[in-house]
Task: structure prediction
Amino acid sequence: MVTILDEIIEKLKSHSFSIPVKDIRDPYSSKTPVYPMIVVEETRNTPDLQLHGKVIRSNLNYKFEIYGRDTISNGEVMSKRQVVVSIFKELDEIMREIYGMKITVSPTILAATDKSVLRHITTYGGIIDNDTMIIYQR
Result:
């Protein structure tokens, strides 16, 4: 099986989001939360096609949780909803255009435990060829 989790995290860390993302992390980080931030988790990595015991293609899913608070960006006041949706739009472009993945679970916006924070959750998935690393859709 293959994973592209580390590659995705590094790509997001190197991307200049229009609203600066202060942290991109794993879901079980013990670091103190800073906002806005993105939590990335590989939620599925299962064989899709095997031939003579060798995994040819794997089914991959990645869950993203974007956390944001009301903020000022470029001198403009932005609500926490505007913050998470703006970051999501850029994340969506990266996942579709660079990784060829599509949304597999509809985006959901929820209040976090801290009511001053909003959480935007979505999951992307695709089938990856384990040799060529090309991602396909069904």
